[in-house]
Design goal:
Chain B: Keywords: 4Fe-4S, Iron, Iron-sulfur, Membrane, Metal-binding, Oxidoreductase, Transmembrane, Transmembrane helix. Chain B: The chain crosses the membrane at residues 6-24, 70-93, 105-129, 223-241. Chain B: Residues 311-341, 375-405 form the 4Fe-4S ferredoxin-type domain. The structure holds 2 protein chains of 2 kinds. In chain A, 41% of the residues lie in helices and 11% in strands. In chain A, the strands form 2 sheets. A 4-stranded parallel beta sheet of chain A has the order 2-1-3-4. A 4-stranded parallel beta sheet of chain A has the order 6-5-7-8, with helices on both faces. In chain A, helix 10 links the parallel strand 7 (224-227) and strand 8. Chain A is α/β, with parallel strands linked by helices. Chain A has helices at residues 10-15, 28-32, 34-49, 66-70, 74-90, 101-110, 123-132, 165-172, 209-218, 230-242, 254-261; strands at 22-25, 54-55, 95-98, 119-122, 148-151, 177-178, 224-227, 250-253. The N and C termini of chain A lie close together (9 Å). Chain B has 2 domains: 3-30 and 62-247, Up-down Bundle (Fumarate Reductase Cytochrome B subunit), CATH 1.20.950; 269-443, Fumarate Reductase Iron-sulfur Protein, Chain B, domain 2 (Orthogonal Bundle). Chain B is built from 22 helices and no strands. The chains are: A alpha/beta, B mainly alpha. Chains A and B meet through helix 2, helix 3, helix 4, helix 5 and helix 6 of A and helix 12, helix 15, helix 19, helix 20 and helix 21 of B. The complex binds iron/sulfur cluster (2 copies). One iron/sulfur cluster binds next to helix 14 and helix 16 of chain B.
């Protein structure tokens, strides 16, 4: 990646009198966290490759309010939500693709009651639909061919919304060996970041949740731990480092797997 | 009708009345909770109940316990059909009243019940082994100390005794039923006269262990009969005090399941009203809100005590089987934190029972100065939750411990401003910069310019 990316904003498109096919909701982690920014860029590359006419809100985007809500601060959540809904409705947004399961869940499930009804999909679902519609062809696994990959279900994608197959479908397209953890899909275990835990120290216990989960992932002897959430990514990456396995176990978002395999 | 029939009728009526009274109290306690509409979509609700409660679909996620539980459950439900006959016999002094009407089919039924009884015994023995010999970890968590463990074992022993009484009754009776009418008549045991050929499928193996004298057998049969039926009536009245009440509440509780995606948390309506007012460009920010006609107190945000929870949260508490499947899947509990979703449910029930007793004693508006928050559940437990929904998914009767945790977090934050300091910082960031970290909203698109 050497050059800056061209990422159109809603405001620009609107000024030109254009409407994008889909709004890409980047999310706070995807905008600011160094590791997560790479996931954001991978998603953009895939959208471009498939010729999707998309836009971001850019500086008009704001936190969905999810971390405040899960921590119990319903006031801040609803203020954030209503402000975002004003912006989204102002642009008459219909379809949203998110880079983060938390944004996905909140906008899909909790915004409608507050006046914001959109067709919200997670990026793994969207990429899947691009393939299904013949807009994106995958050439095989590239560097991942034959590798062993385990998928960690993000709680707010999997259990909370029943999306288990979209990310797995993409991984399977890479000619890899998908090996499941004992706790997967409905019974998947949290990485430890949810419920605003990401933003605080854990309560007293005898272990960190992300270490426990990383150990479960490592039991499958993977080359790659794949996930679909920037927060899970941080947690699993830290876990792998803690276990001193970062030399032979990588943590990637499914979007990064696709973008890398396709040499984008 | 003899004296024994009158005694039976009195015991029976007393048992039913006492049970109904306790169920009424539980109903009243559940209705102390806040309103919540769960009357939508009856079709889906019946289906959920059929699948989860009747079909035990979530029990079999863990196959051994699941199948054993189905044995015990199916056995108990079906064998209880016979209780109908026992009650009629008990009141009218008849003996096996259905046998003449049903003929051969009756003996088929009794054999079927006996096989089920054996399966119940098998299930109960496996459960006892799991608790007492294998000592499965989730039965030995701190919240299981004392009464909860005694309660669980009581249920299993009672079930064993009831099945033993049922089989012994049949074993003794089958000899009597096969005896010749003359012989029975000479002993004054006419009522045992029947044309049964051969014993019953399971209890025949007990027959050899019993004395052969008909008068003694009749005494054994009567004792086992009384033990069986009085045991069942006593067990019925044990339910309201026990986690075993789930055998009743599992049905309504799954009917009223949350049908939404697990990720959808409620949006607090009281907050919504205030936020809408704040965001309304036409509202005068300095005007005092116009007092609406008959406006109620805004009420508390979130939940401090059981009355602040919804009736469904409270029904959940009474439905909990204390199986600990939730806790054994909980990431916080698994990593040694204080939080146990099962304890959240048990505490809610215990507190609700306490509040109910207070009302019984001192009237409806009685306050005892205690609350669910702090006196039962501590903030440390509440803050350890990752809101992952694993507990909700694991629960075989569709209980939602997370919903209670969230309501109590809301109380801590919105009524007491008692957020852990890092979270308070996160709130400020979200409010001021539109992100949980200290980054400026103006920099939100910088990633697109950065090269790496
Ligand atoms: S939602 Fe909370 S209580 Fe339930 S399993 Fe997850 S961490 Fe535990
Ligand atoms: S809440 Fe459900 S899973 Fe947890 S102990 Fe009670 S019945 Fe079992």
């Amino acid at each position: 990646m050497s050059e800056a990316m061209k990422v159109p904003t809603m405001a620009e498109m609107n000024a030109k009198g254009e409407t994008p096919e889909v709004l890409f909701w980047v999310g706070c982690a995807g905008s600011f966290d160094d590791r997560a920014k790479k996931i954001t860029k991978a998603i953009v590359k895939i959208l471009n490759k498939a010729g999707v006419k998309f836009a971001v809100l850019g500086t008009e985007e704001s936190c969905t309010g999810d971390p405040a809500k899960r921590a119990g601060n319903e006031f801040i959540f609803q203020m954030q939500a209503m402000a975002n809904i004003q912006v989204l409705n102002g642009y008459e947004v219909k379809k949203i693709v998110t880079g983060c399961p938390h944004c996905f869940n909140t906008m899909k499930n909790e915004y409608p009651d507050l006046g914001g009804s959109y067709d919200v999909v997670h990026h793994t679902q969207f990429i899947n639909s691009l393939i299904k519609d013949g807009r994106l062809q995958l050439e095989g696994g590239g560097t991942f061919k034959g590798k062993r990959i385990t998928f960690h279900d993000p709680c707010y994608l999997g259990r909370a919304n029943g999306v288990f197959e979209a990310p797995r479908g993409l991984i399977e397209k890479l000619d890899v060996e998908l090996s499941e953890m004992k706790r997967c899909k409905e019974r998947g275990m949290c990485c430890g970041a949810g419920g605003a835990q990401m933003f605080k120290e854990a309560e007293k216990g005898n272990k960190e949740v992300n270490i426990e989960r990383t150990e479960q992932a490592l039991e499958t002897e993977p080359d790659v731990i794949a996930t679909g959430c920037p927060f899970c990514n941080t947690m699993m990456t830290d876990g792998v480092k803690n276990k001193e396995r970062e030399d032979n176990v990588q943590v990637y978002d499914v979007a990064e797997l696709i973008a890398t395999a396709e040499d984008l | 009708m003899g004296i024994s029939n009158i005694i039976f009728a009195v015991i029976f009526i007393a048992a039913v009345v006492f049970f109904a009274k306790n169920v009424g109290k539980i109903r009243r306690n559940i209705l102390l909770g806040r309103d919540e509409d769960r009357s939508d979509n009856p079709g889906e609700r019946w289906k959920t109940m059929a699948r989860v409660a009747l079909g035990q679909s979530k029990m079999t996620v863990r196959p051994i316990a699941g199948i054993m539980h189905i044995f015990v459950y199916v056995g108990f439900v079906i064998i209880n059909i016979e209780v109908l006959e026992i009650i009629i016999d008990g009141i009218f002094g008849t003996h096996r009243i259905f046998s003449s009407a049903l003929g051969d089919f009756y003996y088929f039924l009794i054999n079927f019940f006996e096989i089920l009884a054996l399966l119940v015994v098998l299930g109960v023995v496996v459960f006892l082994l799991r608790r007492l010999v294998m000592r499965i970890q989730r039965f030995y968590k701190p919240e299981m100390k004392g009464w909860p463990t005694t309660d669980a074992l009581n249920i299993l022993w009672i079930e064993l005794v009831l099945m033993a009484a049922f089989l012994t009754m049949n074993a003794a009776d089958s000899v009597l039923l096969q005896a010749s009418a003359d012989q029975l008549a000479s002993l004054g045991l006419e009522k045992y006269t029947s044309d049964l050929q051969g014993g019953f499928v399971a209890s025949q193996f007990l027959t050899g262990m019993l004395p052969q004298d008909l008068t003694t057998l009749a005494a054994i049969e009567r004792t086992a009969w009384w033990l069986h039926i009085v045991g069942i009536l006593a067990f019925l009245n044990y339910l309201p005090y026990s986690k075993h009440f789930h055998i009743i509440l599992a049905f309504p509780n799954t009917y009223y399941s949350d049908l939404e995606e697990q990720g959808k948390f409620t949006n607090d309506d009281k907050v919504k009203k205030e936020v809408e007012l704040m965001m309304d460009p036409n509202a005068d920010p300095f005007a005092a809100p116009a007092p609406e006609e008959g406006a109620e107190e805004p009420g508390t945000f979130g939940a401090k005590d059981v009355q602040d929870l919804t009736w469904k949260n409270l029904m959940d508490a009474y439905s909990c089987t204390e199986c600990g499947r939730c806790t054994s899947e909980c990431p916080a509990n698994q990593t040694g934190k204080l939080l146990s979703p099962r304890k959240i449910m048990m505490d809610t029930r215990d507190r609700l029972v306490e509040v109910g007793k207070g009302i019984d004693k001192n009237g409806k508006d009685h306050k005892d100065g205690k609350a669910l928050l702090n006196d039962y559940i501590t903030p440390e437990e509440l803050w350890a939750c990752t809101t992952c929904n694993a507990c909700v998914e694991a629960c075989p009767v569709n209980i939602n411990p997370l919903s209670i945790i969230m309501e109590m977090r809301r109380y801590l934050i919105m009524e007491e401003s008692a957020a852990p300091s890092e979270l308070a910082g996160m709130f400020t960031n979200v409010e001021n910069n539109g992100a949980p970290w200290q980054f400026a909203q103006a920099d939100r698109l910088k990633w697109a310019e950065e090269t790496d």
